[in-house]
Design a protein that fits this description.
Blueprint (H helix, E strand, L loop, with lengths): L13 H20 L2 H5 L7 H10 L6 H11 L7 H21 L3 H12 L30 E10 L2 E10 L4 H14 L12
Helix pairs in contact: 5-6, 5-7
């Protein structure tokens, strides 16, 4: 499963850190308890619209009109550095294909890959140092019969950060990784709410 906890908060901005912590807590509660978490007091009902509105209000994401201006200026999804833009450009074809299958905007798929891989700068590696092409941090469960790689990771259990070693899926190329990412989201009922959500 993708791990939202690996995102590096690179801005020293205290409000960004607080907002990230709040959203991370909501995501964790939602994963652990689903929609029932809000009713039972165990967690928060993850409101996509509410989270997006908070992010937009704080200036951390753009609204549709801002995104159109930024896309026009940059030729695609907005990025802060030339390296980030190069990463987005390098995965754009596969992100579009996955997004079409999932019914979401390609920028969301690109953002998830950027989040999980540190803009492609922290790829999961095999024992011999080769890339696993696993930009989404997808773990290899018991049902996975493909190649794997063990890696150190931080998992959040009951709000506590635990350092552990996990087995992750490994792919022969980026196209296979994006294909498996879309398949996993389509086939697992846990992610049904993320499908066909548009932009």
């Amino acid at each position: 499963e993708p791990s939202f906890a690996r995102m590096d908060v690179e801005r020293g901005d205290a409000s960004f850190g607080r907002l990230f912590s709040e959203l991370q807590g909501e995501v964790t509660a939602y994963i652990q308890h689903g929609d029932a978490g809000a009713d039972s007091g165990a967690g928060s009902s993850l409101s996509t619209e509410g989270a997006l509105l908070r992010l937009r209000a704080s200036g951390l994401i753009m609204g549709e009109e801002d995104r159109v201006d930024a896309a026009t200026a940059s030729g695609g999804a907005a990025a802060n550095t030339p390296e980030q833009q190069a990463f987005l450009d390098s995965i754009a074809p596969w992100a579009r294909q996955a997004a079409d299958r999932l019914g979401v905007a390609p920028e969301l798929v690109q953002a998830h890959a950027a989040l999980e891989s540190g803009w492609g700068q922290r790829p999961l590696r095999t024992g011999d140092g080769a890339s696993t092409h696993n930009l989404f941090g997808i773990k290899a469960g018991a049902a996975w019969d493909g190649a794997t790689s063990d890696a150190a990771t931080t998992e959040y259990v009951g709000g506590e950060a635990l350092k552990t070693r996990e087995r992750f899926r490994a792919y022969p190329d980026a196209a296979s990784a994006f294909d498996d990412y879309a398949r996993m989201l389509l086939e697992n009922p846990r992610y049904r709410g993320a499908l066909n959500t548009g932009s």
